[in-house]
Design a protein that fits this description.
The complex is a heterodimer of chains A (about 70) and B (about 250). Chain A is mainly alpha-helical. Chain A is built from three helices and no strands. Chain A starts with a helix and ends with a helix. Chain B contains eight helices and no strands. Chain B is flat, with a radius of gyration of 20 Å. Classes of the chains: A mainly alpha (about 70), B mainly alpha (about 250). Chains A and B meet through helix 2 and helix 3 of A and helix 3, helix 5, helix 7 and helix 8 of B.
Chain lengths: ~70, ~250
């Protein structure tokens, strides 16, 4: 059981890291991009915009927390 | 061509950063407790990592390219944003910089305090610490090699970039015989974060059905965009840090 927990924790840290909201936001952005692209909408701008906003929001949260 | 150069650069720099961190631990343990068991631990970890890449690399070739790019892109993006976020916070003075000299001193102290092996036997402390350090840092390298290599169908190029980076770091470490404290680790992480994020968006987007304007050249635009966003964030953080604490933030 200890090894399973350690394995799950390792992958969680690896993929999600310190801010789960970034990972959740990226999942939503990917889903929206997939939906738009499959309805014929040019959605190339969505992922870069979402990633940049998520980065700014996450950095701002961390900076506020350590003020 | 552009994407191959960036792929090589991204994998090389990411591997170099991880190799520097692993080298610090291996050197500290080897110098304090001896090299035989330490190098055995390193070799064991390298064998495990090579087996992972050798097993997963060909297996990934059987997955449809759009599915592979979607999954790999999403993972690279999540991973890349973590690197970028930490690099921005460190450069902005809101997180301490990783200090290899300090890590080396701390590791030496712990290695000296641990019980020593009886004459001629395997020193399991050295073996385990070296194995764990190389394996954990190496897993990140393996992930980047597999991600970059499989999504672009250039596993050999990505593996060669990682091998070259490890060879350079080990050679310099052998000459210096100490931690590579002068390597601008945070700057490298910053660059790698930008590259991982850009490639993650490009491949993830393609996998999701996006048609990129300019095709492969869109990667360069993404790299430029995220470099600008990150530099602007660092400048803003430094301005805030200076407003809070008049002592200047370190680069």
């Amino acid at each position: 059981m200890r090894y399973v927990t350690a394995f799950v924790r390792f992958w969680w840290n690896f993929v999600v890291g310190d801010d789960w909201r970034v990972a959740a936001g990226l999942a939503a952005a990917f889903a929206a991009t997939w939906l738009l692209a499959h309805h014929g909408v040019a959605a190339w701008w969505l992922l870069p915009l979402a990633a940049a906003l998520l980065l700014v929001a996450s950095v701002a949260r961390e900076a506020r927390g350590s003020d | 061509m552009t994407s191959s150069v960036l792929l090589f650069l991204g994998t090389f720099l990411a591997s170099a950063v991880e190799a520097v961190e692993a080298l610090t631990v291996v050197l500290a343990v080897g110098i304090v407790r001896g090299w035989r068991s330490t190098l055995a631990g390193v070799a064991a970890a390298v064998v495990v990592l090579a087996a992972i890449v050798a097993a997963l690399g060909p297996a990934l070739q059987h997955i449809p390219i759009s599915t592979l790019r979607f999954v790999v892109g999403a993972l690279l993006l999540a991973f890349g944003l973590q690197w970028l976020r930490k690099a921005v916070l460190r450069a902005g003075g809101f997180k301490p910089l990783h200090d290899e000299s300090e890590a080396f001193a701390s590791e030496r102290e712990q290695a000296g305090a641990a019980a020593s092996a009886k004459g001629g036997r395997t020193d399991w402390y050295s073996f385990t610490v070296a194995f764990k350090s190389v394996l954990l840092e190496g897993l990140e390298v393996a992930f980047i090699v597999l991600g970059f290599g499989s999504a672009q169908g250039k596993l050999g190029l990505a593996a060669a970039a990682a091998a070259a980076a490890v060879a350079v770091v080990v050679a310099v470490g052998f000459v210096v015989r100490g931690p590579l404290a002068r390597v601008p680790e945070n700057t490298l992480k910053f660059v790698v974060g930008v590259l991982l994020t850009s490639f993650g968006i490009f491949w993830g987007g393609e996998g999701a059905g996006v048609a990129w304007p300019g095709s492969d050249l869109a990667i360069l635009a993404l790299v430029g965009f995220f470099a600008l966003v990150s530099v602007a964030l660092v400048r803003e953080l430094r301005r805030r840090r200076t407003a809070i604490d008049p002592a200047p933030a370190r680069a």
